[in-house]
Give the backbone structure.
Amino acid sequence: MTQFGKGCHLHLIDGSAFIFRAFHALPPLTRKSDGMPVGAVQGFCDMLRRYLDHDHGNDAPTHIAVIFDKGSHTFRNDLYDQYKANREEMPEDLRPQIPLTRRATEAFNIACKEIEGFEADDIIATLSCQAREAGGRVTIVSSDKDLMQLVGDGVEMFDAMKNRRIDREGVEEKFGVSPDKVVDVQALAGDSVDNVPGAPGIGIKTAALLINEWGSLEELLENAEQIKQPKRRQTLIEKREQIELSKRLVQLDCETPLEFTLDDLEVRDPDPETLLGFLSEMEFRSLSKRVAETLGREAPVIPDTTPEGANPPEDDAPDAPPIDPEAYEQVSDMAALERWIEKARDRGWVAVDTETTGLNEMACGLVGISLCIEAGEACYIPLAHRAAATDDLFGSDDLAEGQIDMDKALEALKPLFEDPAVMKIGQNMKYDAKIFARYGIEIAPIDDTMLMSYAMNAGLHGHGMDTLSERYLSHTPIPIKSLLGSGKSQITFDRVPVADAVKYAAEDADITLRLWQLFKPQLHRAHVTRVYEGLERPLVPVLAQMEMAGIKVDRDVLSRMSGAFNQKMAQLEEEIHELAGESFNVGSPKQLGEILFDKMGLEGGKKGKTGAYATGADVLEDLATEHDLPARVLDWRQISKLKSTYTDALQEHINKETGRVHTSYLIAGANTGRLASTDPNLQNIPVRSEEGRRIREAFVAPEGKTLVSLDYSQIELRILAHMAEIDALKQAFRDGQDIHAMTASEMFNVPMDEMTPEVRRQAKAINFGVIYGISGFGLARNLRIPRSEAQGFIDRYFERFPGIKAYMDETTAFAKEHKRVETLFGRVIHTPEIAAKGPRAGFAKRAAINAPIQGTAADIIRRAMIRMPEAIESLPATMLLQVHDELLFEVEAGAEDSLIDAARKVMEAAAEPVVKLDVPLVVDAGQGANWAAAH
DNA sequence: GCTATCACG
DNA sequence: GACGTACGTGATAGCC
C-alpha cells in the first residue's frame, strides 16, 4: 500500500460525461436476451477499457477513480433555483443504464465515488486539492470547461475524445486568462448549458479582456464606474448581484465532505472472473473477447451468439416458457407485494397492467394491478374485488377476502412506478397512466408495446393486445368476455372472482412483457427508434394530460339546440310525408330510395351492391333541382345528424364530477400518424355549415378564461411543395401569396388581379386532389364537371407543375419496390396492397401518395405538442384539444397574447431541427369565449 | 355485426 | 377495354 504523496498520480474520470458521450455517440443497442437497453453501458466500458490500456507514459495513474453525480439538488440550486433548469430530461433509454455503469466501474475494480447532493465536479475539485497538497499530480479525464479552473500546480486535464492533455496553456487558449481567473471569466460570460446568467451581452472574449485589464472580478466590479463603454458600464453596475451569484455558481467547492481518502483510490487489477462475468451478463461479445485477451483469459461463451455485423435472425423471441395462466401468483399481503417491488427494482423493468370497472378512465375505479418481470412469472394484486353474492342477484358490496388495502398497496407501488431507474412496460400505457394519475402516481419512465408495434407495423395490422399476441406469440389471450359476459348481463371487473381475475390479468402483463422483449431490439433494425422515442412515446403523458383536462361544455346551449332541432325535424317530416303521399321512416335510406325511385319514379336511381338505391347527399342534391322532397330530406338529414351525433350525444359525455367533456385520443389509430379522437370524437365537431358551427358555441371557457385556437395554414400543401420541390409553389408560400389563386393563374393564364372566385375554386379543388392522389373521376365528381374536362385540368396542371407528377410517380415506384412509404421524419407506413390487382391497386396507390404528406403534417403537430408543455409552463394555460392541424387551449384572461406568442413559436418551429423545410410554416390564431369565436 | 350516411381535417 | 375511385378518421341509425 502506497501512501498518497509525491510521485503519485491521481486520475479522476468524470463518469457522467463518459456515459453521455457513450450514449449519444453510439447507435442504440439492446441486450438480445431481454431487450434491456445497454448501448451506453457498452460504450462506457469500452471507453474505460481503452483508457486503462492507453499508454500514458510518465502520466500513468497510481490512483484512479470514476466520479458520478448523485441527486439533482445541490447547494447551487439553493443559491439559484434556475441553476441547470434548462437541462433536458435524461432520455428514457438511458436512465436504467446509469446503475449499470456504476456496476461496470466496480467490475473493472476502479473506485466508484459519488456523494448525495454533490456534483461530480465538486468531488473532483476536492480530491484534486487534496492530491496537490499531498505533493502528487492529478489528471482530470474530462473536457468540461467548468473543471478548467482546477488546472495548474500539477493538475492537468485529459480530453479522452481528442486524446489530448489540457494544461495551463490549453486553458489560457480557451479562456484567455490563467486558470485561477477562469471563474471570473465564467461569472461574467455565464453559461447557457448550466443556465448560469452571467452579465448579459458579455461573452468569454470580452470577459477575458476585462479581467486581464483589472486583474480580478472584484476589482472590476469595484471600478465599474470607470468603464468607458456606456452599455458595458451599465450592465456591470446593474447586474452586479447577478454576476456575483454567477461566480458562486461556477466556483467549485474544494471542501466536499468525503468518506474516503486518496489512499482508497489506489489502482487495483481487475478480478478477471468478476469483470468477464459482468461483460458476459451484458452480452458484450466483442468487448469481452478483447478484455479476455488483455487478461490472458479464455473469452466467455455467450449463448445465442449472433456474429456481430451479420444479419440477425427474423425471429427474435427469446426462449421463454409457454404461457400458462395457472402458474401466476396472487399477491394477497404486503410482504408478497414488497418482494415483487424489490424484484422489479433489481431487474430495472416491470410490465404493468391495470384492471378497472370500466373503459372510461375518468369515471372508472381501479380493481387490481398485474405485474410481470420475467416471461412466465407474473402476479395479480387484487385490490377492490367484491365478495361473491350470497343470495341476491346484485352481488355484495363488501370487499372480497385476501386483498391488500388499496391505499397501502399504492403507497408501496408509487416509488417503484415513479423510479427513474425502472422501466414500466405496458400495452396502451396512456390508459394505465391516467388511472394511476387519479391516485397521485406519475408513472415514468414508460415503454408501450402498442406504440412499438405502431412504429414498426403501421399499415400491416392492428396493434391491440389480442392481435399482437396471436401474431407474434401464437397465443390467444383469455377473452375478457369469458369473465364479464356480454350484453345486458355483463358484469364489471370488480365482480369477477379473484381466482379468475388472476389468470386473465397476470396473463396480460406476461404477454406485454414478452411482446416488449420481442419488439425492443426490432425497433432499431426497422429504423424507427427515433419515431418511437421521439413521436410516439413522448405523446403519452401529453395526451393523458389533455384528456384529463377535458373541455367545458355548456349543457343548456346543447339542450336548447336539441329542442329547436326537434321542432324543425317534425315539421320537415310532415312536409316530406305529404310530398311522398304516405308516411315512412325518413331516416331509412332503404325506404327513402323506394319512395323516390319506385313510387315517385324519379330518374337516376342506382342500386349499390346490397341492392338498395343510393340516396347519398350527392344523389339527393342532383334530384333537388327538380323536386322538393329530396331537398327537404337533405335538410332533415343535416338536422338529424347534428341532433343525434352532437347536441344529444355530447350531453351524455359531460362528466358529472368535472362538468367537462373528456375525449380519448388513439395514438395508434390512424395509419398515417394522425391521432383519432373517440368517446366522443371531438375532431369532427361541425364547422362548415352555419347551423353546425353553432354547436361550437357550446364549447366554452370557464369564467375568467378564454379559449385560444392556433392552426397551421395550408400545412399539407406546404409539405407537398417542399417534398416535391416545386419552386413556384415554394416561392408563393414564401411570399405569402394566395396559393389557390396562384395555381389558377398559372394554369389558366389569368393574371392574379383578374382572378374570379370560380376559377380559384377549381384550382383549389385540384390542389387538394393532388394531395389525395388525384384522378379524373374524383375531380370530376368533386367539381361536378364532365370527366373529360376534369382530365384536361389535371393534364394542364401536370404540364405546368411537372414536379408534382414526378413526385407522385416516384412515390408510387418507391411503394411498389419497398411495400412502404415514409414521412420526412422517418415514420414508416406500410402499403402491402400496392401490389394488388384490380380496383384495390388504385386505392393503395392514392393512399401511398397521400400518406407521406398527411403523415409528415401529423409528425409536425406531434412534435409541437410534445414541446408545448415546457413552452407554456410559466403561463396559466392548458392545452385541451388537437384537431389534426389545430391546437385548442384554455388560458386565464389577460394571458391570451403571451400564450399565442409562445405556442405559435413552438408550432412554427416544430419541424426543426430534424427537417429544414423550404417553406415557412404559418400558424393562424384566434380567441374567444367559445370555440366558435376562437376558431 | 354490417352498411349507408355524414361530421371533421 | 373495363374496372370504379378522390386521402384519413368516428358516430349514428337502420336493418338483418
About this structure: Confidence is low (pLDDT under 50) at residues 305-316 of chain A. The radius of gyration of chain A is 33 Å. Chain A is about 45% helix and 10% strand.
